[in-house]
Amino acid sequence: YIEITADYYYNRVNNRILTIPTYDFNLWKMFTFDVVDIYGIDISANATIQIGHFEFLIGGKYSYQDATDFSDPASATYGHQIPYTPHHSASANVMIKNKWINVGWDVSVVGSRYYLPYNNWNSSMPGYVDHGLALSKKIRGRTGNILLSAHLLNLFNVQYESVRGFPMTGRSIRIAVNYEYIKY
Predict the structure, then answer these.
(1) Which among 46, 84, 132, 170 is least surrounded, fewest beta carbons within 10 Å?
(2) What is the DSSP code string of 42-79?
């Protein structure tokens, strides 16, 4: 099984409201962009490959987005990318399913972006890459199924900020137990 999709889009947004944090988490500044033109392309690919007792699920996505302020030609921010909108972002994942345990890996890549409406090197934020690993096991029972899962987030303990001044957590583990009742 192989699936490939590609979407190209254009949006003109009037009165785009954006909130941006200041030096204090409790104080946010609101911006209204009268006109924002957004051009973008999203490409994704997914494949499922069966080899013996192993099923490989492979996927990837890429997005390009140009979200430009066209509110006022006399403004210093005219023609600039709106804050916190990277031009490039991507993700990929691989999962190996079998009868014993499922193992997965994922990666997210976010390109550089600006945290202020005026785009220059002072308001630029670096991009980042975030990896994760996952293990899961489904245990079938008479009245339902139990799904055990563990996900190691930020595998390489990369220090990055999605929002300026608010660093994301380092390496962490998420463990979940789900029960699915099956009525016969």
Answers:
(1) 170
(2) EEEEEEEEEETTEEEEEEEEEEEEEEEE-S-TTSTTTT
